[in-house]
Amino acid sequence: MDTNYPLLPLLLGQAVFTAVAALLVLYLVLTRGRTVTEGREQAIYASLALANRTLPYLRRGLTQATAHKTALVIHEFLQPTAVAIVGGRRILAHVGAGSEHHQPGHEPLTQLTHEVLRTGRPAVAQTREAIGCSRPDCPLAAGVIAPLIVQRRLVGSLAIYFGDAQPLTAGKVKMVRAMAQLMSLQLELAEVDRKTAQLAKAELAALQAQISPHFVYNTLNTIAAFIRTEPETARQLLTDFADFLRRTFRRQGEFSPFAQELEYVHQYLSFEKARFGDRLSVVYRVDPEVLSTVVPVLVLQPLVENAVRHGTSRKVGPGRVCIIAEDRGNEAWFCVEDDGVGMSEEVAQRVLQTRRRDAFGVGLVNVNERLRSVYGPEHGLAIVSRPGEGTRVSFSVPKYKAGVEV
Fold it and tell me: In angstroms, rounded to a whole number, what is the distance separating the alpha carbons of residues 220 and 234?
């Protein structure tokens, strides 16, 4: 994920992006530089109203379930003879007349649909013969079929059919074509959502795999050192470590309450304190009001790990790590401070720009990208550090955000 250029829907907001795109498409398709007539105004209204009602379904992708609900909405709103949606080469939904033989799961029966799927261009039929249904008793007398295109790929078609008593006007043709373009935009947003979710899961899996090697090695060495001198301590550490690893690799979901993240970090630090002894002290300053705030999983542990590994452990003499969580009204502010070796301002600025395994590794980059993708670019990590004085890594998140839930 490019942290400098976040996805457009994340910057503008999904609703704003959809509305702007819809207005642009309708303006280009329906006005084409001319004065908007009453008929075109009705087409604009109808298309926007339909787009708003079908958005919750199509944003989940094009399936039989979402296509059927979308077709029902269009059929109820426009009152045509029938509405059909094709995905790939199969009928996903057919609502209205002819549904007894235009059945979901089967290939389209009309020649006109096959022509649209072959050429990727909209088509209009004024007669039954032009529609070309293989069933001679088909009630579909006229229709408009428009392609659904996602990222320049033809993924299906939208067909709206009319009967003998419903004349096919130029306004209806424009409205169907505009509706298909809006549906294509909604499906593109669904594809963006899907890829973003996949990327977030991949980032989380990468982080879960990445945090273990050096930490596992050091912890096992610590336990081995205790075996001869303090066997009971070694036994307890080994049991706790097995439980810690089990929790790490079995964690489900992308979000958890901050209280759970804090508990996880506390368990992690118990092994680091066993390893460093009196050389490491930990201070917690946590406002109880933020414990229930939902945050991305594994958002705190990498910050603490870096504070120990690259801060206090390289310092001569004892070091301290401070974990702070403050209630700041509508937001919660989190911070991990250490009094370790620190770094120059130039290095601090580069830390989040490259995945450097020789310095801060991929942990901070991973956390920064996930925070920005979930909450927006203004909620990424902030690093303040000075050589010999320590490092502070902080971030803030809204206490409540739609879609961020356990």
Answer: 10
d(CA 365, CA 168) in angstroms, rounded, equals: 57
Cα separations in angstroms, 183 against 117, 195, 293 = 16, 18, 36
Contact 367, 299 (CB under 8 A): yes
Q: Environment class of residue 119 by beta-carbon count within 10 Å: exposed (0-12), middle (13-18) or buried (19+)?
A: exposed
Tokens 């426009």, located at residue: 78
Residue 141, both tokens? 């007398």
CA Rg, the chain, in Å? 29
In angstroms, the CA 22 to CA 48 distance is 7
d(CA 161, CA 179): 14
Go through the domains of the chain in sequence order and give each one's CATH number: 8-195 (3.30.450.40), 251-398 (3.30.565.10)
For tokens 């390289």, name the residue. Answer: 314
Straight-line distance from the first to the last Cα atom of the chain, in angstroms, rounded to the nearest whole number: 24
Q: What is the dihedral of CA 237, 325, 303, 339, to 10 degrees?
A: -90
User: Is the entire prediction scored with pTM above 0.90?
Assistant: no
Kind of pairing between the strands at 280-286 and 153-162: unpaired
Q: Could you tell me which of 370, 393, 368 has the C-alpha nearest to residue 383?
A: 393
Using an 8 Å Cβ cutoff, are 45 and 174 in contact? no
List, for residues 65-118, the tens digit of each pLDDT value.
Answer: 989 998 998 888 888 999 999 998 899 999 999 999 999 999 999 999 999 999
- Tell me how long the chain is: 406
Residue of 394, 391, 392 whose CA lies nearest to 380: 394
335, 396 Cβ separation under 8 angstroms: no
- For 109-257, where are the alpha helices, taking DSSP H only? 111-119, 128-131, 170-210, 212-229, 231-250
Per-10-residue mean pLDDT, the chain, length 406 = 36 41 43 46 62 72 88 87 91 92 92 92 92 89 91 90 82 84 82 66 57 72 88 90 78 83 92 92 96 91 90 92 96 96 87 57 76 88 93 95 81
β-pairing, 319-328 vs 280-286, is parallel
Q: How many CB atoms lie within 10 A of CB 233?
A: 14
The residues pairing with 125 across neighbouring beta strands, listed in sequence order, are 143
| Cα 286–chain centre separation | 29
The neighbouring-strand residues paired with 320 are 281
| Contacts by 52-57, CB closer than 8 A, 24 or more apart | 53/77, 54/183, 54/186, 55/18, 55/186
